[in-house]
Amino acid sequence: MRRTAALAGAEARLLRRNRTAVFTALVTPLAFVALLASTAGERLATPTGAAGAVNLVVAALLLMVVFYNVLSAAVARREEGVLQRLRTGEAADAEVLTAMAVPSALLTALIAAVFGAAGALALDLPLPGRPLLVALGVVLGCAVMALLALVTAAFTRTLESAQITSLPVIAVCGLGAGLFVPADVLPGALARVAGFTPLAPVVELLRAGWIGDPSAADLATWTATLLAWVVLGALAVRARFRW
C-alpha cells in the first residue's frame, strides 16, 4: 500500500501539471449539462430527468477522465521507458498499474460528488436514497474504465495514436450508456446488447441509487455484468499489456 500510494502521489502531481487533462475534467460536466439543458427541455426540471442528467455526467467523466487519462498515462510512461524502470524496483506490476489509475479515479469521484451536491441545490434533485449503490457504481465504473484503458494501451503505439484507438471504446460505451442517444429509443435487440456494455450497468446503478427502487434481480445483473468486465479486463491486461 505504501508503494502504491507513493506512485499514485507521483501520478497525481503529473496529472495536476497536465493542464489539458485538468481542463477536460472540469469543463466536461458543465458542457454536458449545457447540452442536456438545450435538448432535454422540461424533462430536466423533473427529478427523474435531473437524476438522469447527473448520471450521464458521471458516465462522461468515467470516459473522459478515467479512461482517456489512464490510457494516455500508460502510453506516455511506456514511451519514456518509465514502466520498464519501475519493474526493476520493488513495486509489483499490479501496484504500478493501480497507481496510474488512482488519481483519475479520485478526481472523478470528487467531481461527481461536487456535481451531485450542486444538482441537489440548483435542480432540487433529492439526495441519493441509496448512496451505497451510487458508490458501488462509481467504484466499479472506475475499475472497468481503468482496465479498458490499459487494454487499449496494449494496441496503442504512440501517444498521438491514442486519439484514434480510444474512439471505438468511447463509441461503444457512450452508446450503451445513452450518452449519444437515449437507450429507450434503440431497437429491441440493440437495446438488450447495449445493456451489457461496460458503462450501461454503471448508469443503471447510479439511477437506482438516486431515485430508483431496483429489484434484487436487477442489482445482481448489473453488479455481475460489471464484475465480469473487471475479470475480463484484468485477464486481458495480464496477457496483453506492453511494458
How would you sum up this structure, described in words?
The protein is globular, with a radius of gyration of 18 Å. The mean pLDDT is 85. It has helices at 2-17, 19-40, 47-79, 82-87, 93-122, 131-153, 162-177, 188-194, 200-210, 216-240. By secondary structure, it is an all-alpha fold. It starts with a helix and ends with a helix. It has one domain.
Along the chain, the helix and strand elements come as HHHHHHHHHH
Work out the helix count: 10
Strand fraction band?
under 5%
State the share of residues found in helices, binned by percent. Answer: over 70%
CA-based gyration radius: 18 Å
Main features:
243 residues
Short description:
Helix content is 78%, strand content 0%. It is mainly α and 243 residues long.
Q: Topology of this protein?
A:
Elements: H1 2-17, H2 19-40, H3 47-79, H4 82-87, H5 93-122, H6 131-153, H7 162-177, H8 188-194, H9 200-210, H10 216-240
Helix pairs in contact: 1-5, 2-3, 3-5, 3-6, 3-7, 3-9, 5-6, 6-7, 6-9, 6-10, 9-10
